[in-house]
Amino acid sequence: MDYRAIVTIEPGKRGGKPCIRGLRITVYDVLEYLASGMPEAEILADFPDLTSDDIRACLAFAADRERRLLSVPAA
Description:
The protein is mainly alpha-helical and about 80 residues long.
């Protein structure tokens, strides 16, 4: 999935943290809910502006960031 169309970073919004489609919901928020065991259906019910694609984009963003961290040579 190409998350770049969904995950946006705006300097004046939420301190420049990655957000979903310009909303004030951060990738971190969504990942925290998932990590705490909150089911996708509950996240979508609590945040009606979100879609299943948004949640998958958060996961793809996190996976890509992790992949890039692992690609950096150790000092």
